Amino acid sequence: MASSNKEKKIVEDKKEQKNKEDKKKEQKVKEKKEVKNKEEKLNLSNGNLKQHKEKSLIALCSSDLKKQDNNAIVVNGTTSGTKPKRKREEHEDDEEDVSKTHAFPINRIRTVIKGEDPNSRVSHEAIIAINKATEKFLEQFTLDAYTRCVQERKKSLSYMHLAHVVSKERRYDFLSDFVPGKVKAEDALKERNSGGSGGG
Questions:
Q1: Pair 134, 104: CB distance under 8 Å
Q2: Confidence of residue 65 (pLDDT cuts 50, 70, 90)
Q3: Which of 17, 131, 135, 178 has the most beta carbons within 10 angstroms of its beta carbon?
Q4: Does 92 map to a domain?
Q5: Is the distance from CB of 113 to CB of 120 less than 8 angstroms?
Q6: How far, in Å, are 189, 190, 199 from residue 196 at the CA level?
Q7: Which Gene3D superfamilies does the entry link to (predicted)?
Q8: Is the pTM of this model over 0.90?
Q9: In this structure, are residues 43 and 35 in contact, taking their beta carbons and an 8 Å threshold?
């Protein structure tokens, strides 16, 4: 009896040890997946968009093929065109697919354009181009500000760095009214008083 209890205990201990090892293996696999996901996100955030573009193009192509297959109507053994009622849904799906590949919402850009001139007609391709141009501009602007941040050996990017870039680089002159350099209240009052007395 005692020997059978010992054998049972040994078998149970081996099972527990095997379960622990299996859990450790699963944990390692999860950690590897997390590290891989973090690396992919880091690559995307560092500007390595080649993989992202390829994945998004593949996803767009496959979704288009699926839509074509789903929307074909079979009549007497032949397929006819797409369902007319689904055009709006298809357009919305296309916008969702495109919005995954762009930084800014397409509808918001369209709203901004309509806000400037309600009678303007802008094609979908033009809106995508505006989206991409805005994305590239902001990337360059923040990169220039980040470079200034690194030069000053600061750990975080601040308004001061953005204002410095606007004031020092000619290509950002158009932003001088929107991102002015910080000025102390005393200096602003002195400048205002000296400007007011000099003109009168």
A1: yes
A2: very low
A3: 131
A4: yes
A5: yes
A6: 10, 10, 6
A7: Histone, subunit A
A8: no
A9: no
Q: How many CB atoms lie within 10 A of CB 60?
A: 15
What long-range pairs does 42-50 form, CB within 8 A, spacing at least 24? 47/139
In a domain, 37, yes or no: no
Parent domain of 172: 87-181
User: How many other C-beta atoms can be found within 10 angstroms of the C-beta atom of residue 146?
Assistant: 15
Total tally of structural domains belonging to the chain = 1
Handedness of CA 131, 137, 143, 149 (dihedral sign): negative
How large is the average pLDDT for residues 115-126?
Answer: 88
Alpha helices (H) along the chain: 2-45, 50-71, 87-101, 106-116, 124-151, 159-168, 185-199
Contact criterion met (CB below 8 Å) for 139 and 155: no
Domain CATH code at residue 132: 1.10.20.10
